[in-house]
Design goal:
This protein has eight helices and two strands. By secondary structure, the chain is an all-alpha fold. 26% of the residues are buried.
């Protein structure tokens, strides 16, 4: 069944802002809905409490907390406390993903992408290749451009797991998005390893 557009003969009273249909209209369902809408409009106008201001576009406290969690994870990583680093990055990811829907989605993508890339690095340090690969891929999904570290990390994980064909395809895709010396070096390494196995 196709949707069709039907222009309704609605009228608005300039003084009361009430919406109505002409008396000649026989659409009872529409008249009932408009009555309910006008009743709600009058009730909202008669409220004693003022309408609250719109929320801030970005909650600066949440941004500061996410940044602090990332920095705590980085500090733990530098101390070779990888499990703690993973825990901090995970908290940061959860907090960033939990942002209200009205906050800019590109902010969430940037935060989550960086945290996933960092968590992938911590998993790599523990040689937890499958989880590191998933985190690196999640980072790239959030932000493809200007994210060569995540592209490289997934490629490295695939190499470490012996999945050379996938690694080659992944790194080639990364090089299409962005030229990078580390990705080129990894592509050459994959090619050499593949030739040795043949």
């Amino acid at each position: 069944m196709e949707d069709t557009y039907i222009q309704l003969p609605l009228q608005i009273d300039p003084a009361s802002k009430a919406i109505s249909v002409p008396a000649s209209s026989d659409n009872k369902a529409l008249a009932t809905e408009l009555t309910a809408l006008n009743t709600l409009h009058r009730a909202l106008l008669n409220l004693d409490t003022p309408i609250p201001p719109p929320p801030l576009p970005v909650n600066p406290k949440r941004s500061a907390q996410i940044q602090k969690l990332r920095e705590s994870g980085n500090a733990s990583f530098r101390k070779s406390n990888y499990a703690e680093a993973i825990r901090m990055y995970t908290f940061g990811i959860e907090m960033a993903i939990g942002r209200p829907g009205w906050e800019p989605s590109n902010l969430v993508r940037d935060e989550v992408s960086a945290l996933y890339a960092n968590r992938a690095q911590a998993h790599m340090a523990m040689q937890n290749w499958p989880q590191a690969m998933l985190d690196a891929e999640s980072s790239v999904e959030m932000k493809k451009v200007a994210n060569t570290k995540a592209w490289w990390r997934k490629g490295r994980c695939l190499v470490e797991m012996g999945r050379l064909e996938e690694a080659k395809a992944w790194v080639e895709s990364g090089l299409i998005v962005e030229e990078d010396a580390d990705l080129k070096a990894l592509a050459k390494e994959i090619e050499k390893t593949t030739k040795k196995k043949e």
